Amino acid sequence: MTLPTGAAADPDDLAAGADEHLLGRGLRNIGDMIRIKPKPFAVGAAGAMINTGMTLLLSYVIGWVVAGIAVPAYESGEVALGTVLLGVAALLGTSIIRFSSMCARRIGAGVMQFGVQAEWRRRITRRYLALPVSWHQKHPTGTLLSNANADVEAATRPLAPLPFACGTLFMVVVAMIAFFTIDWAIALVALGMFPALFALNAVFATRMAPRAKRAQELRAEVSAVGHESFDGALVVKAMGREAAETERFSASATELRDAMIGVGRLRAAFEPAISGLPEIAVLVALLVGLARFEAGAIDLEQLVTVSFMFSVLAFPVRAIGWVLGDLPASVVGRARVDHVLSATGDMAYGYEELPPSTAPARLEFDAVAYAYPDGHEALREVTFSVEPGTTVALVGATGSGKSTLAHLAARLIDPTRGTVRLDGFDVRDLDHASLARTTALVQQIPFVFDDTVRANLALGRPGLDDERLWDALVAAGAEKFVLNLDDGLDTEVGERGTSLSGGQRQRLTLARALAGDPRLLVLDDATSAVDPKVESQILAGLKDSSDAASVLVVAYRRATIALADEVVFLEGGRITARGPHAELLRTHQPYADLVTAYERAEAEREFDTEFNDEEGAA
Ligand SMILES: Nc1ncnc2c1ncn2[C@@H]1O[C@H](COP(=O)(O)OP(=O)(O)OP(=O)(O)O)[C@@H](O)[C@H]1O
């Protein structure tokens, strides 16, 4: 199985039995990452090679200083100043180049690793935003965060020691040539060390793969549970579920801890062996070297050189072990990243552009059906239109399909059958800009960013000056409360708008939609937290304004419903009645029953509010 960038990769393929090609997949992953950041890799690898070259050269310099300067000086009792200076200059020069190249190696490795991480995070974010609502519904936010963090980090982990390992490989090749030119017996010791090291790593990687996979999954799970708990902190507190929620989080965290300890245990068992092997090879080489020196096969300078070469090789060889040791987790992380990058089902946009216009749009549902991915058919044979400048109210019992219809109107989802048209164009054929310019959806649960009121209203859209924003605030009935905020439009609203009430947040998001001058406004119970009288005033205002948009509104309150030019009544995903509110009240009993029930509930709520106010006053 290959892992080209963006290829479909199922993390489940990494189950214990499917990791035979782990080394190949890990190396391919490294190859892909080098292609993303070739220059920093080149700098890091060049630095590493110069560094190792200098280290090897140092072996010769030390051999020469010991055998050519120190020993003769010791034997003759005198030493020439020029020779000493030359020795010092040689040692200093090689050391300075060695340390500078070490800096280049580290900088190259860092820039490469963090650069690839940033690139993948960008790709993942772009992908998340391109994927349809149905995909997001199946993937908890915490898991998505884990993909962009823990998985990206795991996938790129081998990059940190990679240039070092490349330099080491280069060093090994040069050292092997040097060993063979000096003495075949010493060369054989080195030759035996590398296959043993690779074999040990192969066993380690095979054992590590399933553990690394489980640990990555659990990281995502802990992130998902944590995100949900913190997100729902208010509910947890209000329902007194702190202990149960802590227990739920602890269970996931404990499982992750156990999995990580399992990973640690395996590392603890293998890493000393992987690190110790080169040290053992140094000892063996020293013994063999001494025997060869005594036998007269090598001289003192050669003995010092090979001994130093072996001892300086022992540490860098571990870098190869680090890269190999990080491969299992990196393959798992990469597969999880690719799982997102290769996810399909985007809402592809068309190429048709809606002609520029400020006139209200026409929305048409033509024999539309929609089934959720689980097969549940939420809408069937829905046919109706919202004529330009009119307001159509969607009314129906809970679960009858109103929100699904609103999402279709805003093209958050596409119908499974039938067509949704905007000004006569199939919405699937329209380009993104035309759709964004024309339609605005306001949902029941308002999302407010942790920013100022102004930034929340403008959302970075060009041309929205303060005058336009105030007009939108007036139309959304939000002008007074924004004027009363300490810093007006510059007031910071806090994370998710915590400093605002539910009704204020709703009006802010309505104003945000209106600021873009949409030609079609889709309101999915968008003013439910607003006082009923204010809600009616807002909707009446929208309807009467000179540049009125067409409005599709999911409505529950009788006064709101009565404002609509037409009511579309949904039952079980089908339209069972259509017409003006007054007419439906007379002719369609289920409609009359539902609206009366809404009215009764509203009256009871108002009574409770007044009663509580009076109690409070008393
Ligand atoms: N993501 C989903 N997956 C599967 N079924 C879904 C999903 N979302 C909604 N449904 C189902 O589709 C049907 C229509 O849901 P929808 O949210 O459109 O109803 P609604 O009329 O807006 O309800 P409410 O008034 O309670 O908001 C319901 O039966 C609901 O259970």
Describe the protein:
- It is a single chain.
- The chain is α/β, with parallel strands linked by helices and 618 residues long.
- The chain has two domains: 18-342, ABC transporter transmembrane region fold (Up-down Bundle), CATH 1.20.1560; 363-616, P-loop containing nucleotide triphosphate hydrolases (Rossmann fold, 3-Layer(aba) Sandwich).
- The protein contains 20 helices and ten strands.
- It has helices spanning 22-36, 38-76, 81-130, 133-138, 141-156, 162-182, 184-231, 233-238, 242-294, 300-341, 402-409, 432-438, 453-458, 466-475, 479-484, 502-515, 532-544, 558-563, 581-587, 589-617, and strands spanning 363-371, 377-386, 391-396, 417-422, 425-426, 439-442, 520-524, 550-554, 566-571, 574-579.
- The strands form two sheets. Strands 6-7-8-3-9-10 form a six-stranded mixed sheet, sandwiched between helices.
- β4 and β5 form a beta hairpin.
- α14 packs across α16 (502-515).
- The chain is elongated.
- It starts with 21 loop residues before the first helix and ends with a helix.
- Mean pLDDT is 83; it is low at 1-20.
- Adenosine-5'-triphosphate binds next to α11.
- Residues 42-329 form the ABC transmembrane type-1 domain.
- It is found in: Cell membrane.
- Belongs to the ABC transporter superfamily. Lipid exporter (TC 3.A.1.106) family.
- It is a multi-pass membrane protein.
- The chain crosses the membrane at residues 41-67, 79-97, 159-178, 184-204, 303-324.
